[in-house]
Amino acid sequence: xxxxxxxxxxxxxVHRLRISAPHVARKAQPGQFVILILDEKGERVPFTISDWxxxxxxxxFVFLEVGRTTERMARLQKGDTLAHFxxxxxxxxxxxxxxxxxxxxxxxxxxxxxxxxxxxxEKGNRITTIMQAADNESxxxxxxxxxxxxxxxxxxxxxxxxxATALKPLEDMLKNLDHEPMDRIxxxxxxxxxxxxxxxxxxxxxxTTVHMAPVMVDGTxxxxxxxxxxxxxxxxxxxxxxxxxxxxxxAWDTLMARRxxxxxxxxxxxxxxxxxxxxx
Amino acid sequence: MEMPKQAPCERKHNFDEVATGYTLxxxxxxxxxxxxxxxRNCVExxxxxxxxxxxxxxxxxxxxxGAARVLKKYTSLPGICGxxxxxxxxxxxxxxxxxxxxxxxxxxxxxxxxxWERSQGxxxxxxxxxxxxxxxxxxxxxxSGLTVAADLALLGHQVDMFEALHVAGGVLMYGIPExxxxxxxxxxxxxxxxKLGVNLKLDYVIGINASMDELLESYDAIFLGTGAGLxxxxxxxxxxxxxxxxxxxxxxxxxxxxxxxxxxxxxPIKMGRRVAVVGGGNVAMDSARCAVRLGAEKVMVIYxxxxxxxxxxxxxxxxxxxxGVEFHFLVAPSAMxxxxxxxxxxxxxxxxxxxxxxxxxRRRPVPVKGSEYVxxxxxxxxxxxxxxxxxxxxxxxxxxxxxxxxxxxxENGKSSKARVWAGGxxxxxxxxxxxxxxxxxxxxTAIHKYLVNIDQ
Lengths: 280, 456
Ligand SMILES: Cc1cc2nc3c(=O)[nH]c(=O)nc-3n(C[C@H](O)[C@H](O)[C@H](O)COP(=O)(O)OP(=O)(O)OC[C@H]3O[C@@H](n4cnc5c(N)ncnc54)[C@H](O)[C@@H]3O)c2cc1C
Ligand SMILES: Cc1cc2nc3c(=O)[nH]c(=O)nc-3n(C[C@H](O)[C@H](O)[C@H](O)COP(=O)(O)OP(=O)(O)OC[C@H]3O[C@@H](n4cnc5c(N)ncnc54)[C@H](O)[C@@H]3O)c2cc1C
Ligand code: SF4
Ligand code: SF4
Ligand code: FES
Hints:
The complex is a heterodimer of chains A (280) and B (456). By secondary structure, chain A is α/β, with parallel strands linked by helices. Helix content of chain A is 23%, strand content 30%. Chain A is globular.
């Protein structure tokens, strides 16, 4: 059993949980994730680690209420317990001295990216962070992102704005590369936004990485639910990722469909536009 | 003697055990068929050399408790082996009576004894040897890990067993379906092993939460029983379309996560009406039979060789056929066809014919030019086999692995790394429950020998 040490509501339908799990805290690295199970009848659901305290043995993550399990999680209180908590899973994010790094975040990326930005900053990179949210109420974690970023840009797009709102600041920057070169882009955002970014930078020679979140079951490389087509052959996001070179990912449209296998059926309708995506 | 079974029309609609087991009278009557041969042929056929005539002789005298005790001396998992062992090619194939017709139903008797013992309130805990003060880490809680853990605990060593998933049992829990091996029985056996003093640590991944070298700092020896859980795919166009599953995902959702009881259990499984299972082993049979029970209208098994080459147990094929599963032999998929929204809606297949025998001695299937056709299907389960998960090997540079990813061991299960032994699917690449147990037993003996000699 893993105790909920703290539960904070960050904004509408966004929560931060702090869980006591010393064996996970001891090994956590930026970009890794955990899988939890609420009770013996629960599903295995993955969440990106947003912070940890090795001394106190706690692990934090931020979640969006989008469906059955996360809605139940919203009701968890301090002192409650989770039946299972396993991690840190996946490969840590690639951290090095790259130069000028642009980080694009939306959804849970506003929190999940923080440890990565922090380590990138410690390595001496210059960081520009672009935050994207549907509306002002959905912005959270601004302080933390600001603390480790040299520039913080915010793209707020009302309903229907779609990925274009986050893409706008990025597109402006891409036009201005002569004045302000960019050495790397990394995104933890909705799959639609990450796809747009991958396309925008494909022919510009800028290394672009994306943090993928396909549907997972075990998270240890056993089921293949999380597989994606990759220039180096089929890869499993839970063991080869979740961070991937965006330009090596093939068949984004299949990935998007797979990601929505268990989503609300409306998502599969032909006329569906991604700006209502539950992860947006 | 035949074992009573649920009728096909009935069992198609539930996940309850297909074979309902002997009654006491049936078991005693079957035990009396054994002629207590001097030359114990049957024992030779069992990978763990269970002294079969010894437990049967006690049954013949109506001493069920005694019989169960004998059985437990050789296997800590009789309720499991009695159900899933391929007895027809092991103990029962060697039984003297087999030559004259029908062998003694050894597996069914073992199953009966294990179930009887459970109905009496669980297995008696044998006397434990005083503690030796030595500590062993067992990685993986499948049949091999459970066997090593039980054997070494009985010999007085302190055993901690680490399992990556949220329940113990390995393939017995996530792969083999409830209707062949009820999960309560597996958990009963796990409880028994825990009662012997074994500490079970779930949700703990070796290679992540602790490296092998870190483990070696706190343990005198390690046994690796991590199985072969990495699924193979066909590598054909469209394989990542929605509703194309690996057998591991399909079975894990269904068995481990109990998706057949969704929404009481939170994990869903999306399945259409026409399910195609690609492959011909036991795993393919299990997938097909789960699909039947999940409500598919049509379930097809697509196999690239002919019936004679099918690796699945005959009994399982018959069960599947009775339940309405269709077999398409000499057919191989060449592409998945999508419906425009990335859902699979068909599978392009090519007919095969059998050519020269290959390395495995089976005739190699070769495609017949121009024979392509489309199988209409909305759900595909790919069941081609698995290989070892590279997690431990990739984080343990001094552990020698073969090209196939299996850990290289000597005849005692000893790996190239000091104080590390291995057994089960991680060394064989995939075999049976009882062979995993057999290898585990050999490794346990070697580990014990090493531990008692450390101080000298
Ligand atoms: C590596 C990884 C990291 C993640 N990190 C976070 C995080 O930090 N914060 C956060 O809020 N969410 C994160 N997610 C997404 C999160 O796992 C899903 O939002 C969650 O599973 C939804 O569960 P639900 O039952 O509430 O939603 P429902 O919509 O009811 O889920 C229905 C089904 O869809 C599946 N599913 C839905 N969304 C996702 C998704 N994005 N990824 C995988 N499966 C999904 C679920 O398994 C479930 O079976 C991450 C996902 C992955 C794979
Ligand atoms: C669907 C299916 C049906 C089968 N039917 C039969 C049958 O009828 N009869 C038969 O005899 N055999 C059958 N088999 C084969 C048999 O189940 C296996 O040979 C046997 O389970 C192998 O046992 P094992 O202990 O080596 O590994 P497994 O049972 O695979 O157990 C390995 C365990 O180790 C855990 N693990 C892996 N890596 C780590 C790590 N890094 N840290 C911690 N834990 C880890 C895994 O989660 C797993 O629980 C079947 C297999 C399948 C898949
Ligand atoms: S363990 Fe398997 S092979 Fe051995 S006697 Fe029992 S059923 Fe036969
Ligand atoms: S070979 Fe058959 S008949 Fe002979 S002892 Fe063994 S089980 Fe009994
Ligand atoms: S989640 Fe099962 S292999 Fe990645």
